UniProtKB/TrEMBL annotation:
Pfam families with a match to the protein in the record: PALP
An example Gene Ontology CC term for this record: cytoplasm
Gene3D superfamilies, per database record: 3.40.50.1100
Cited InterPro entries: Trp_synth_b-like, Trp_synth_b_CS, Trp_synth_beta, Trp_synth_beta/beta-like, TrpB-like_PALP, TrpB-like_PALP_sf
Region (Disordered): 20-42
Protein name from the UniProt record: Tryptophan synthase beta chain
Gene name as annotated: trpB
Source organism: Fodinibius sediminis
Family: Belongs to the TrpB family.
Function statement: The beta subunit is responsible for the synthesis of L-tryptophan from indole and L-serine.
Domain Tryptophan synthase beta chain-like PALP: 76-413
Top EC class for this record: lyase
Pathway: Amino-acid biosynthesis; L-tryptophan biosynthesis; L-tryptophan from chorismate: step 5/5
Keywords for this protein: Amino-acid biosynthesis, Aromatic amino acid biosynthesis, Lyase, Pyridoxal phosphate, Tryptophan biosynthesis
Length: 455
């Protein structure tokens, strides 16, 4: 039995898989908040290039990956798959546990899988500068790397608390050539408004998105880029699941359950959708479990409604599970999972019960992360420990039931730049977060009052 299952560069997928083509209920359209009409390309073209807008609305089952993109993918793809033999032994489980490791990319997570094609399509259309937001810094680093590959300027609005707490992420972005500003900043009206009310705010992803969009709207040659949530982002990540399927084929296996953490839904979609295709087309019965933090539980405690993607309300309204666009989650270390909504595609699939969701507290996640480090030797990103924790739950259930099920999870990033999180965990400074429905009520009421949710 092989410990790791490697593919050749020629095995890098040639197409991205578009799950929309196989969804029994197609996702509802995004709406223009002013008119209440479906948002058209003209609503999106000030901030995104046409190449990506076409992918955003495409119903084609597969979309070809440009050669220039595959060429850059070769730096880290195909990513390795491992059989978690040491973890299985420690758990004394009859289950087989496999994980796909995306931490081998230039920024240490799955994010470059979409950063590279996004910058490619911008370059094709003559864009000179790209703005974005970043929380913990994973997305900003990935976009900075991709912009360096195509010689485009990169401007990153980094949530203030992370800017102060994770200085090395900022230096990584600077090394790839990006300019990084703490958000809220005084460079935008959205930022200035927030600072006027609360000069000491720690910032949020929603505010940083507003700032980055505002900058893009002001300049013809500047566009905006988002690292999760949107259809085209989820599409690009499907290289993960396609490779994983081939790797499991070599191992003579097929997953009974696929597990991944969910912030906006891109890495979960990336590993799940190619297998979900086989459920929808061939009657396979794989389960798909998205794992969210108990402090930001949009899938398990949010409501399916139209809501904004950012706090200032610059984006179109999206039909999704949401905690309300003004919801500020507790300052947990898994920064990439602190987003108020889930992607339209994952939301619709959950509504249709084609995928499942579970919320886990951060102490269980760090405990799982430490066991994983000791057994498998990889220190996982705090986000990634959510996937590990659920994989362990599945393996323990298999033991109780005496079944030999096959578990596949996505190890979406390493935690080498997150060691302060582990330090806090060992020092006993982390606690579980008691989430109360009271916090939610007001935020959700504001969203229910939006026109499309009233009708
Ligand atoms: C960004 C990020 C996430 C969350 O984003 P998704 O779009 O849900 O994948 C999770 N893990 C890591 C390591 C990240 O960088």
């Amino acid at each position: 039995m092989a410990k790791k299952i490697q593919l050749n560069e020629s095995d890098i997928p040639t197409h991205w898989y578009n799950v929309i083509s196989d969804m029994p209920n197609k996702p509802q359209p995004p709406l223009n908040p002013e008119t209440g009409e479906p948002a058209g390309p003209e609503d999106l073209s000030p901030i995104f290039p046409m190449g990506l807008i076409e992918q955003e609305v495409s119903a084609e089952p597969k979309i070809e990956i440009p050669d220039e993109v595959r060429d850059i993918y070769r730096i880290w793809r195909p990513s390795p798959m491992y059989r978690a033999t040491q973890l299985e032994k420690a758990l004394d489980t009859p289950a087989k546990i496999y994980y796909k490791y995306e931490g081998v990319s230039p920024s240490g997570s799955h994010k470059p899988n979409t950063a590279v094609p996004q910058v490619y399509y911008n370059k094709q259309e003559g864009v000179k500068s790209i703005t974005t937001e970043t929380g913990a810094g994973q997305w900003g680093t990935a976009l900075a790397f991709a912009c360096a590959q195509f010689d485009i300027n990169c401007e990153v609005y980094m949530v203030r608390i992370s800017y102060d707490q994770k200085p090395y992420r900022k230096v990584m972005m600077n090394t790839f050539g990006a300019d990084v500003y703490p958000s809220p900043s005084d460079r935008t009206q959205a930022g200035r408004n927030v600072l006027a009310k609360d000069p000491d705010t720690s910032g949020s992803l929603g505010i940083a998105i507003s700032e980055a969009i505002e900058r893009a709207v002001q300049d013809e040659q500047t566009k905006y880029s988002l690292g999760s949530v949107l259809n085209h982002v989820l599409l690009h990540q499907t290289v993960i699941g396609q490779e994983a399927m081939k790797q499991l084929e070599y191992a003579g296996d097929y997953p009974d359950v696929v597990v991944a953490p969910l912030g906006g839904g891109s890495n979960f979609a990336g590993i799940s959708f190619p297998f979900l295709k086989n459920n929808l087309r061939e009657g396979k019965n794989t389960r798909f479990v998205a794992v969210e933090p108990a402090s930001c539980p949009k899938l398990t405690k949010g409501e399916f409604m139209y809501d904004f993607g950012d706090s200032a309300g610059y984006t179109p309204l999206l039909p999704m599970y949401t905690l309300g666009h003004n919801f500020t989650p507790a300052a947990i270390h898994a920064g990439g999972l602190r987003y108020h909504g889930a992607s339209v595609l994952c939301s619709q699939l959950l509504k249709d019960e084609l995928i499942e969701a579970v919320a886990i507290q951060q102490l269980e996640c760090f405990e799982a992360g430490v066991l994983f480090a000791k057994t498998e030797g990889i220190i996982a990103a705090p986000e990634a420990t959510h996937g590990i924790a659920q994989a362990i739950r599945e393996a323990e259930r298999a033991k109780e039931e005496g079944t030999e099920k096959t578990i596949l999870f996505n190890l979406c990033g390493h935690g080498f730049v997150d060691m302060s999180a582990y330090e806090d965990y060992f020092a006993g400074k982390l606690s579980d977060h008691s989430f109360t429905d009271e916090q939610l009520k007001q935020n959700l009421q504001e969203v229910r009052d939006l026109a499309p949710n009233r009708g």
